[in-house]
Design brief:
- Helices cover 40% and strands 0% of the residues.
- With 72 residues, the protein is mainly alpha-helical.
- The longest helix has 22 residues.
């Protein structure tokens, strides 16, 4: 979603744009958009790495509501 009144633009999920709307006004793009599936992959040898486990946990908690919405 483009940043209103700015020469800058950012492509971001609607939920992220809406979260930042109080700081940076946003506007709808002038074209139709489609829903995309986003995934994160880790190599098996990173299992048990404390920093990787922490990051995965942060990402999972931050996106739990998206999975709940998608599955109904």
């Amino acid at each position: 979603m483009p940043l209103a009144d700015s020469a800058l633009a950012a492509i971001a999920p609607r939920s992220l744009a809406e979260a930042f709307a109080c700081i940076h006004p946003v506007c709808e793009p002038p074209y139709a958009t489609v829903r995309l599936e986003v995934r994160a992959l880790w190599h098996e040898r990173r299992r048990g790495d404390a920093s990787q486990d922490w990051l995965r946990g942060i990402l999972q908690r931050a996106t739990d509501h998206l999975r709940e919405t998608a599955t109904g």
